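User: Predict the complex with iron/sulfur cluster.
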Amino acid sequence: MSALLAVEGLCVRFAAREGRMVHAVEGVSFSIPSGGALGLVGESGSGKSTTARAIAGLQAPSEGRVLLDGEPFGRQSARSARARVQLVFQDAQGSLDPRRPVGWSVEEPLALQGSGTAKTRRARAFAALDACGLDPKLSLRYPHELSGGQRQRVAIARALVCEPQLVILDEPTSALDVSVRAQIVNLLCDLRQRFGLAYLFVSHDLAVVRRVCEEVAVMYLGRIVERAPRSELFASPRHPYTQALLAAVPEIGRDLALAPLALDPASPLAPPSGCAFHPRCPRRSEVPAQRCSLELPILQTHGDAALSCHLAAGAVPRAHPAAPGSGASRG
Ligand code: SF4
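Assistant: Here is the predicted structure with iron/sulfur cluster placed in the model:
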């Protein structure tokens, strides 16, 4: 299947104090087929949101390229091409104009494109609100008059009204209560099926990613360390960092008998040498000659999955048992 979105060797670097560079994203590559959904997961500071912003053209890449249907895509792309990729952020309040009724915010992207007449734009905005489970009468309300879940539905309607092929969702449920979160996840699954949307779903919530996405890429300090189909990644995580992340999700960690790590955030300003995960990795002692602290592991493809770890692919257990002697620890 040809890729709708192809990300090739994407790097984003920022100048920091004292002449240092922050390597926020380093050599990230993946693709999403038309109608597919990829989850990008990792802790805060892993580079997943910066990756999403670079793909959407909100952040200039330092290296690499983004292709949409085989054509270079970015902030220089024509408005009609940019309309094919829409973003939904965690903070719906921030993406809606507080001084305007929400209906205006849903119509605005169409007005900016110069698409249709005022009447047809209004009709499309109403249809998008309706598809998102909102009564179009709510279009006259202001953002502060809506609940958090309703505001997020409006933000999704604003993305949907452009009839995009790809929606980039950056932590779209993180600010919501658990019950509302489930409703928004159901809505996203429904919209994807109904309109044939592709999703890049950025989240630290692995349970939500498991529900929405068929493929998952795990980022650690700016790099993808593991990528696999959902069923494979959740049933048999291979990278020690993926195992640690899943161990922190009670129902998943318990089922796989994974041991959680102390997940202290590492600084992208001073990434460790070699494998950036090595100071926290419970399995580095299995790799001889201090290779983990000296040599950066390369992301290697194995079938439809990819792994970046010096442990030979076949030697990484499909689940990481928490039994004594497994090498797992809580700190
Ligand atoms: Fe752990 Fe070494 Fe693999 Fe990095 S390369 S995840 S430190 S075993």
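Confidence is low (pLDDT under 50) at residues 318-331.
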